[in-house]
Amino acid sequence: MKFIKVSVAVATLVSCAAFTVVAEPAKSLKHAKKATELRQSVFSLLGSNMGPLGAMARGKMPMDPVAVEKHAMRINQLSLMIADYSKTDTSGFKVETEALDKIWKHGDDYNKRINDLTLASAKLQKVAAAKDSSAIKGAIGGVGKTCGGCHDDFKAE
User: Fold this and answer.
1) What is the pLDDT of residues 93-121, one digit of tens each?
2) Using CA atoms, how far apart are residues 112 and 106, in angstroms rounded to an integer?
3) What CA–CA distance (Å, rounded) separates 65 from 101?
4) What was the pLDDT predicted at 20?
5) d(CA 23, CA 128)
6) What distance in Å separates the CA atoms of residue 144 and residue 117, rounded to the nearest whole number?
7) How far is Cα 113 from Cα 115, in angstroms, rounded to an integer?
8) Burial of 32 by CB count in 10 Å (0-12 exposed, 13-18 middle, 19+ buried)?
9) Rg of the Cα atoms in the chain
């Protein structure tokens, strides 16, 4: 429990500090493509951990608090990487991405969304440890809302 509180505090500081540096434009198409690939890899891993959580919350899979805690921990760790893998502004090049240019134009808003995910996933870890299925479903919904909110603002459909 103490570990989670410390993790949340550290995560908050790390994610807030991550965008204090202005995003740097990609230096070439090759650089933009690599940065995009790495950014998309983080989001792909996030999705692979959200999938089972959503299925459990909707009753499509049995609720497994141990698995929930594992996926929440991974999401939390990945949330701490988002800013690092989004710091290269790829908007000046034609790359295949659903990322909107707003990521680099509104870094503070993007950083807030990242921080929301960090906090929601830490809360889910804590709730999963208590093994209360109802509370777990609510906390999964909280993580899902942070993902959806960021998609609404920063991802092309």
Assistant:
1) 999 999 999 999 999 999 999 999 999 99
2) 10
3) 38
4) 41
5) 36
6) 9
7) 5
8) buried
9) 16
pTM of the model: 0.85
Q: 119 with 5: CB under 8 angstroms?
A: no
Can you give the three-state secondary structure of 129-141, one letter per residue?
Answer: HHCCHHHHHHHHH
Mean pLDDT of the 38-63 span = 97
* Residues 62, 52: Cα–Cα separation, whole Å: 10
Is residue 38 within 8 A of residue 88, CB to CB? The reply is no
Which of 50, 90, 98, 42 has its CA nearest to residue 71? 50
**Torsion angle (degrees, nearest 10) of CA 33, 48, 146, 89:** -10
What is the 3-class SS of the chain, one letter each residue? CHHHHHHHHHHHHHHHHHCCCCCEECCCHHHHHHHHHHHHHHHHHHHHHHHHHHHHHCCCCCCCHHHHHHHHHHHHHHHHHHHHHCCEECCCCCCCCCECCHHHHCHHHHHHHHHHHHHHHHHHHHHHHHCCHHHHHHHHHHHHHHHHHHHHHHECC
What is the share, in percent, of the chain residues with pLDDT greater than 90? 85
